[in-house]
Amino acid sequence: MFQTRSNKGPKLTRYHSTMRTTERRKRDAIAKLGGDMDVCVATADDHENAHLVPLSLCWHNEEVVVATEARSRTAQNAERSGQARLVLGPSRDVVIIDATDSVVDIVDAEPLIKNAYRERTGWDPGGEGGDWVYLRLRRRTVQVWCEVDEIIGRTVMRDGTWNS
């Protein structure tokens, strides 16, 4: 990475990507899942209208776990379709995950899920009052890239299986 200064504006940051192997991208994606605090979750309604929200991220037992109110569009869309798209990171270091989901009422959730979520996020949605659910999201497709040179080969998981 290097920085330049424009004659007419703020300092610009330029990134130079070094093409990563599939194995490296896989490791980077898993590190981002384990290290990032937030994830953007996209769902769609019956008319294919997209809905996108940022949520607190818990990576637990190979699943992404997020919490949202049961009445939210995110929960309703996820319940109906059984799928969501997740985005982690900035545009120059992105992980995009197409996932299948299950919606679990917080009251009915396994204690391991509740504890993992609370420990990871520092928050217990069950203590908020109201009706909350966890979305348990399992990866089906994972794409990872930094710059345009990594667009080719960006899919590192297909049908739930890591590419080699």
Descriptive overview:
The chain has a single domain, classed as Pnp Oxidase, Chain A (Roll). The chain has 3 helices and 11 strands; from the N terminus they run ββαββββαββαβββ. The radius of gyration is 18 Å and the shape is globular.
The CATH architecture classification is: Roll
Query: What name does the CATH topology carry?
Result: Pnp Oxidase, Chain A
Strand runs, count: 11
Parts with pLDDT < 50 across at least 5 consecutive residues: 1-6
Count of alpha/pi helices: 3
The CATH homologous superfamily is called: Electron Transport, Fmn-binding Protein, Chain A
Keywords:
Pnp Oxidase, Chain A, alpha+beta, globular, 3 helices, disordered N terminus, nine-stranded antiparallel β-sheet, 164 residues, two-stranded antiparallel sheet
In short:
The protein is α+β, with helices and mostly antiparallel strands and 164 residues long. The chain is 21% helix and 43% strand.
Question: What is the element layout, followed by pairings?
Answer:
Layout (H helix, E strand, L loop, with lengths): L1 E4 L5 E4 L7 H14 L2 E7 L5 E7 L1 E3 L2 E7 L3 H9 L1 E6 L5 E12 L5 H11 L10 E14 L9 E4 L2 E2 L2
Antiparallel strand pairs: 1-2, 3-4, 3-7, 5-6, 6-9, 7-8, 8-9, 9-10, 10-11
